[in-house]
Amino acid sequence: MVKPWGDAGIEAAMKPLTHLAVAQQAVSWALQILAAGILLQTLFFKFTASEESVYIFTTLGAEPAGRIGSGVVELIAAVLLLVPATAPFGAVLAMGVMVGAIGSHLTVLGIEVKGDGGLLFALALTVFFSAAAVVVIRRTALPVVGRFFQVAS
Fold first, then answer.
1. CB neighbours of 131 closer than 8 A, spacing ≥ 6?
2. Which of 56, 60, 70, 139 lies at 20 to 30 Å from 146 by C-alpha?
3. Number of domains in the chain
């Protein structure tokens, strides 16, 4: 009979979390909410075609498809980040989108866009590093690579 919790059985699955595991979950949740909150907040500007968003994607040569497309991907990443079972996937997706945003700032747009004092660049960095931390904390939940990071008990 195949046990859903593997060979260790239900006893291992029901084992109480250590203080470290509880702290890691709390940190992960805080970072997931932070990253998802930033992603969801910036969607308003992408989907309403705010002047700054249109300027950014026009400068990148990707208006309106790039603006709307990146908004849809960011929405998916934010939702995945807020669902416990899919949080690591949302974090990986958010990191990918932020690599594009950070790269655009560093190569085409500049750190400061339309006098924002570098706010958009700072938000992109915040999402990237928050998502990276979530990936590290929840790494064992990722298929293929997660099995290499199992902690022996």
1. 31, 35, 81, 90, 91, 92, 94, 95, 98
2. 70
3. 1
Give how far the C-alpha of residue 22 lies from the chain's centroid of Cα atoms, to the nearest Å.
Answer: 21
Asked if residue 13 is part of any domain, the answer here is no
pLDDT means per 10 residues in the chain (153 residues)? Answer: 48 64 92 98 95 96 96 98 95 97 97 96 98 93 73 51
In a domain, 41, yes or no: yes
Of the candidates 94, 50, 106, the one whose C-alpha atom is nearest the C-alpha of residue 70 is 94
Among candidates 86, 119, 114, which has minimal Cα distance to 101? Answer: 119
Question: At residue 28, what are phi and psi to the nearest 5 degrees?
Answer: -60, -45
1 is a domain residue: no
Token readout for 123 is: 């938000």
Show the domain range for 84.
28-145
Report the alpha-carbon distance of residue 59 to residue 108 in Å, rounded. Answer: 8
For residue 15, being part of any structural domain is answered with no
